[in-house]
């Protein structure tokens, strides 16, 4: 009897410790949790997958079959919750984290100790990139982050670096339209990719944000933003780029001065034509009005025009100090 009582008491003690004490858990505000039963994650009702979620809209059609993860039941912050001995709880932080874009989770010594990322430009120049990326765990795809991928951060960093290097290798700046009659130079047609990259960092960052929108459906990680802050070519190339920039600036300055001088001369010529036109009109206008007046007088009656001419001559004779008159013989 005592043995049975002791066994029952021991079972109750084991049950209290194993189920009650170790089975209670809480989830912090910046955490989300997924519970498994005999190793199988608790799924939502039905056969819902991440393809039914809006995060899948950024996947290409050929990728959707590879990244169809089941949607699991997410345990939100709070508690205490109870789990049974055959159940296990996986907690993940959904707080936003920031890392250097050169960081390699599998090899911390790579990329100059995770400080400088190498990339090759379109004109075959090796350049170094610096910057940061912000990421967080996607609550809508915890299955991929916890169970689907062994090291999701490594996958995300590898995907980001591959997309960035491809963009750097194929980057071409939009050329501004040339003025009429201006012939593009060979340097302008070829372009200097490192200079173009430096001038278009904002477009490069926006391109990376757009291209990395699919990481939530791929790996369960959301890239909030990428910020490329520096593009540094090798030291032997920097001086050449500085010389090229100086030459381009000098050429641009000379072209601007020439265009300004030509525009000024055109404006002055137009003004001179307007002034001479107005002078000619001022000289012609009295004659035109006199012609209109004489025509009107001629229509009033015979001899009126001759009388007018005679009166004008008399006034002129009155003002003249000497008169020369032709005498016909």
Account of the protein in words:
- This protein is of the alpha+beta class and 329 residues long.
- 49% of the residues lie in helices and 17% in strands.
- It has helices at residues 2-21, 110-114, 142-148, 152-170, 186-190, 193-199, 201-211, 215-219, 235-300, 304-319, and strands spanning 24-27, 31-37, 40-41, 78-82, 87-93, 97-100, 117-120, 126-137, 221-232.
- The strands form three sheets. Strands 6, 7, 8 and 9 form a four-stranded antiparallel β-sheet that branches. Strands 3-2-5 form a three-stranded antiparallel β-sheet, covered by helices on one side. A two-stranded antiparallel sheet has the order 1-4.
- A hairpin with a 5-residue loop joins strand 7 (117-120) and strand 8.
- Helix 4 (152-170) packs across helix 7.
- The model is unreliable at 185-191 (pLDDT under 50).
Concise structural overview:
Helix content is 49%, strand content 17%.
Shape: elongated
Q: Beta-sheet strand percentage? A: 15-25%
How much helicity do the residues have?
40-55%
Rg over alpha carbons: 44 Å
Number of helical segments?
10
Q: How far is the N terminus from the C terminus?
A: 178 Å
Class by SSE composition: alpha+beta
Name the poorly predicted regions: 185-191
Main pleated-sheet profile? 4 strands, antiparallel
Number of strands: 9
H/E topology pattern: HEEEEEEHEEHHHHHHEHH
Mean model confidence by pLDDT: 78
What is the assembly state of the chains in this entry? Answer: single chain
């Amino acid at each position: 009897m005592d043995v049975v009582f002791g066994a029952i008491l021991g079972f109750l003690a084991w049950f209290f410790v194993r189920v009650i004490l170790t089975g209670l858990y809480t989830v912090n505000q910046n955490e989300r949790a997924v519970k498994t039963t005999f190793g199988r994650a608790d799924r939502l009702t039905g056969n819902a997958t991440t393809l039914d979620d809006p995060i899948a809209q950024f996947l290409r059609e050929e990728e959707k079959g590879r990244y169809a993860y089941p949607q699991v039941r997410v345990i939100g912050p709070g508690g205490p919750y109870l789990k049974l001995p055959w159940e296990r709880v996986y907690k993940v932080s959904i707080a936003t984290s920031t890392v250097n874009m050169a960081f390699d989770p599998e090899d911390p010594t790579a990329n100059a100790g995770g400080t400088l990322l190498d990339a090759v430009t379109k004109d075959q120049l090796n350049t170094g990139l610096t910057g940061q990326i912000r990421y967080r765990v996607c609550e809508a795809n915890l299955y991929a982050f916890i169970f689907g991928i062994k090291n999701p951060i490594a996958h995300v960093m590898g995907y980001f670096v591959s997309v960035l290097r491809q963009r750097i290798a194929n980057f071409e700046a939009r050329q501004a339209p040339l003025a009429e009659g201006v012939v593009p130079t060979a340097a302008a047609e070829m372009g200097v990719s490192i200079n173009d990259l430096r001038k278009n960092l904002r477009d490069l960052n926006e391109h990376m944000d757009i291209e990395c929108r699919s990481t939530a459906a791929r790996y369960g990680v959301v890239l909030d933003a990428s910020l490329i802050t520096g593009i540094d070519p090798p030291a032997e190339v920097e001086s050449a780029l500085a010389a090229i920039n100086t030459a381009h600036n000098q050429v641009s300055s000379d072209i601007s001065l020439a265009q300004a001088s030509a525009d000024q001369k055109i404006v002055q010529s137009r003004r001179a034509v307007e002034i001479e036109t107005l002078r000619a009109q001022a000289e012609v206008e009295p004659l035109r009005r006199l012609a209109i007046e004489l025509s009107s007088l001629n229509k009033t009656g015979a001899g009126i025009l001759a009388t007018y001419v005679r009166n004008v001559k008399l006034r002129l004779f009155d003002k003249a100090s000497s008169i020369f008159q032709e005498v016909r013989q």
